[in-house]
Amino acid sequence: MSIDPRDYAVDYAQRMLTDTLQSKDEGGAFQAAINNFLYLLIFAIPVFGLNDFISSGAYVSWRDFVSKEMISLYLRNRNYYKMYLRSQESGKLDTDEIDNPDQRICVDIATFCRSFIDLFMLFFNSFVKMVSFVAILWTIEPWLVVFLGNRLHTLMVTHLGLKDGTVFHLTLEETRIKNQDSSIVCCILSSLSLVISQFDSISFLLGAGNRIYQFDRELQRIENDYRFNDGPNQDHVTEESTREGTLHRRFAADRSQKKDGGGQTQTDRIRFVTSERVKLIGVTVMAPSSLKRTIILSDVNLELQGKQRLLIVGRSGIGKSSLLRVICGLWNHGRGTVERPELGDMLFLPQKPYTPIGSLRQQLLYPREDKNEEHYDDQVLEKVLERVGLSQLVTRHGLRTQDLDFSKILSVGEQQRLAIGRVLVIKPSVVVMDEATSAMDIANEKNVYEIIGSLRDGETSIISVGHRKTLVQFHTHVLDLDRHEKGGEALRTMEDYLKEHPMQQ
Ligand SMILES: Nc1ncnc2c1ncn2[C@@H]1O[C@H](COP(=O)(O)OP(=O)(O)OP(=O)(O)O)[C@@H](O)[C@H]1O
Q1: What is the mean pLDDT of residues 235-254?
Q2: How many of the other CB atoms lie within 10 Å of CB of 417?
Q3: Which of 10, 134, 301, 325 has a CA-to-CA distance to 225 between 20 and 30 Å?
Q4: What distance in angstroms lies between residue 309's CA and the mean position of ligand 1's atoms?
């Protein structure tokens, strides 16, 4: 059953024409009907056009706003990476696994906004139409409204089991009213049965809404963890705390005890302090399981000066990646203090870089926020790509032209070089690399370390984890976690380390 008001307007005009033809154009009624038809067109075209314009405009603006908010929350404070880690831990933690975050942002928000606006317009139009038709009916015969009220109830029930045509005939026969009245009955009936006819759209709306709600709730949870455990308040904790600071810490302590059923205390959180250099003081790293606190590494001490490049080595599973996550503020489970620059001044490069769907330019600017984007010149970015050996990508895809899923287009080695391009854009004071060159050939790996070594006049510190022997030549110091496990001095110069491990050369 059609419920588009345009159909009813056309039906109404057609019926007027038919009536005048049936009455054999008494008194120039046909000409009047033609004129009415023309007036209706002149009035209806802009009104219906405006209706579409407003609903499409509302959809685009709303979708744009919600998507930007979600993207900003997703990318802020490395939330995307924390979400990825949480999803891996979901078997061990009481968290929901959030699948396909990109799809939730791209598709679910669009589906939700579109369905909501379409349904809203539909219900609104139907409501207005029903009220106006009831009013028309009232002007024809007031008793019809009361009579039809009772009949409509029966027809609504019948409608569930009958085809539209049958309902139409039933309506005609039962009410024994004129053509106009019967079409009014159909209108009212279709308005009332809207929820049934729109059942699919309502299901889509609820499904998409639920997926967005889950995603948002998980992001808020991660964001709260950041605010109370890794965030700026915690970074600048001093003994002479303000009232606000005291409250924040008390809240964080209450919260962590509540969350871990009292099994974890405030002392099971690593303290972060902003500093120019990376320094670890008595850092113990724990696995983020809510049930059992397994210690991965205990009492690690380390101080890294500018120009120093640290390679973290040790057997598989000893805790190299976990230590990097702690340094970058992705994990805070454990004890001790981590001093490090502001997170915005550090760049963490995992083995498989995150490539949000977008243009080549957006890949390079990630994780910089949108508002800073225009600050970067296209030519500068093209030079960056040239330096990491990816200038052919500009010819192939353009810098701004296409939104692409680069994780499917580029090889892992190329994605890793793209991530190095981000280092050139951001020029951080500390670069943390977790097997970030593992898929590159030797020449590209050498080029990458030379590039990072040349940043900030060589003042950029590097902390790497990797198993390849070739990495030794690019680092000045080694943190040997195997030695640390045996109780020996873990931090040594590369020279000393190589005396003991000549095979690594
Ligand atoms: N989310 C987690 N929850 C519980 N345990 C974890 C979690 N992530 C890592 N672990 C455990 O912590 C230990 C250290 O893991 P990590 O990834 O840091 O080792 P790694 O030295 O980097 O290993 P590899 O060289 O193989 O990459 C491992 O025993 C691992 O199983």
Answers
A1: 34
A2: 27
A3: 301
A4: 23
Determine the pLDDT at residue 376.
78
Q: What is the CATH number of domain 341-474?
A: 3.40.50.300
Q: Mind listing the pLDDT tens digit for each residue in 48-64?
A: 788 888 889 999 999 99
* Nearest protein Cα to ligand 1, atom 18: 319
**Which ipTM did the prediction report?**
0.95
Does ligand 1 lie within 6 Å of residue 289's CB atom? yes
Which pair of structure tokens corresponds to residue 325?
Answer: 């996550």
Q: In what order do the strands lie in the sheet with 295-304?
A: 271-274, 334-340, 278-286, 295-304
Q: Which of 32-36, 39-43, 405-409, 419-423 ranks highest by mean pLDDT?
A: 419-423
Report the separation in Å between the CA atom of 298 and the middle of ligand 1, taken as the mean of its atom positions: 14
Of the candidates 355, 350, 504, the one whose C-alpha atom is nearest the C-alpha of residue 435 is 350
431 three-class SS: strand
Burial of residue 62, with CB atoms counted within 10 A of its CB: 0-12 exposed, 13-18 middle, 19 or more buried: middle
Contact between residue 308 and residue 253 where contact means Cβ atoms under 8 Å apart: no
CA distances from 13 to 1, 17, 30, 44 (A): 19, 6, 11, 12
d(CA 479, CA 49) in angstroms, rounded, equals: 68
**What confidence category does residue 237 fall into, taking pLDDT thresholds of 50, 70 and 90?**
very low
Ligand 1 center–CA 89 separation, angstroms: 11
